[in-house]
Amino acid sequence: xxxxxxxxxxxxxxxxxxxxxxxxxxxxxxxxxxxxxxxxxxxxxxxxxxxxxxxxxxxxxxxxxxxxxxxxxxxxxxxxxxxxxxxxxxxxxxxxxxxxxxxxxxxxxxxxxxxxxxxxxxxxxxxxxxxxxxxxxxxxxxxxxxxxxxxxxxxxxxxxxxxxxxxxxxxxxxxxxxxxxxxxxxxxxxxxxxxxxxx
Length: 199
Ligand SMILES: [Zn+2]
What we know:
Elements: E1 2-8, E2 14-20, E3 25-29, H1 35-45, E4 48-53, H2 65-72, E5 75-77, E6 103-106, E7 109-115, E8 124-128, E9 131-135, E10 138-139, E11 142-143, H3 153-164, E12 173-176, E13 182-183, H4 184-190
Parallel strand pairs: 3-4, 4-5, 9-12
Antiparallel strand pairs: 1-2, 2-3, 6-7, 7-8, 8-9, 10-11, 12-13
The structure holds zinc ion.
Residues 56, 58, 119, 136 line the site of zinc ion.
């Protein structure tokens, strides 16, 4: 997978990504940096932004979405529970919910989407080609906060339990919304939240 990591330094050091497809399209995940950063990179790579996928709707994950959507017409996927509720969920209704069957195909890429409420009601984790984009649900050695508006410790427990049972290879990369990257195997061995020791 042709993956580009872009750190959005403001407001909260969010990990954001561009994935380039063989057909010359780009998929942005949680574009939260200055829109110009993505537009510039897309132009450099000579690709067209066609999709914006959000792991959740928190303000520190969506900063460039409206502008990018306006400039490129990209399709935006976000769970509606995570929109239209500023200041934490500032995104207006410009997106659509993920497909019910949890599968989204974009060119040669196949995304599997799992609903993982807990950090927010509309949180999802996305898997594609050996990489799990875990948003603010699963962090390296930790998990996302559940004490913010819309958060739920009970939902997070269920979501982490579900994630821990996914039949993903141990070498699957885990790319969270903040801080360090990890692997699924590493998290299954050492993350107390994923191991169920937190609840
Ligand atoms: Zn968040």
